[in-house]
UniProtKB/TrEMBL annotation:
<dbReference type="Pfam" id="PF00364">
    <property type="entry name" value="Biotin_lipoyl"/>
</dbReference>
<protein>
    <submittedName>
        <fullName>Biotin/lipoyl-containing protein</fullName>
    </submittedName>
</protein>
<dbReference type="InterPro" id="IPR001882">
    <property type="entry name" value="Biotin_BS"/>
</dbReference>
<feature type="domain" description="Lipoyl-binding">
    <location>
        <begin position="45"/>
        <end position="122"/>
    </location>
</feature>
<keyword id="KW-0092">Biotin</keyword>
<dbReference type="InterPro" id="IPR050709">
    <property type="entry name" value="Biotin_Carboxyl_Carrier/Decarb"/>
</dbReference>
<dbReference type="InterPro" id="IPR011053">
    <property type="entry name" value="Single_hybrid_motif"/>
</dbReference>
<feature type="region of interest" description="Disordered">
    <location>
        <begin position="21"/>
        <end position="54"/>
    </location>
</feature>
<feature type="compositionally biased region" description="Polar residues">
    <location>
        <begin position="23"/>
        <end position="33"/>
    </location>
</feature>
<dbReference type="InterPro" id="IPR000089">
    <property type="entry name" value="Biotin_lipoyl"/>
</dbReference>
């Protein structure tokens, strides 16, 4: 058996795959029981990796920080606006990729940032 880690839509799954030789006489099946077993294995909490703590949210493009919408220690939900980044005369809302608590904000309003610079740490 080989072990693999697969990421689908942001969720990480751990799967085991058995390699079959060409001489194996295996008939594919898709019984309801097999499907239910597979679904329950995917949905089980043991197979889903926990979100990483200290997740850094980086600037996707160079620009200037127009405003901060959060403060250190604040709890945020996935999709909540963290700050506004102006780039090429457009305002870009930078949102939280996951729920968490703001542990650090290494930027200030009116600060110029480059692509990849850390804006907020969850």
């Amino acid at each position: 058996m080989k072990q693999y880690e697969i990421q689908v839509n942001g969720k990480v799954y751990h799967v085991s795959v058995k390699e079959l030789s060409e001489s194996s006489d295996v008939t594919p099946t898709t019984s309801q029981e097999t499907i239910k077993e597979a679904e329950s294995a995917v949905a089980s909490p043991e197979t889903v990796a926990k979100p990483a703590s200290n997740r850094e949210v980086a600037a996707p493009i160079p620009g200037t920080i127009l405003s901060l919408a959060v403060k250190k220690g604040q709890s945020v939900k996935a999709g909540e606006v963290l700050c506004v980044l102006e780039a090429m005369k457009m305002e870009n809302e930078i949102v939280a990729p996951q729920s968490g608590i703001i542990s650090s904000i290494p930027i200030q309003v009116n600060q110029a940032v480059e692509a990849g610079d850390v804006l907020v740490v969850l």
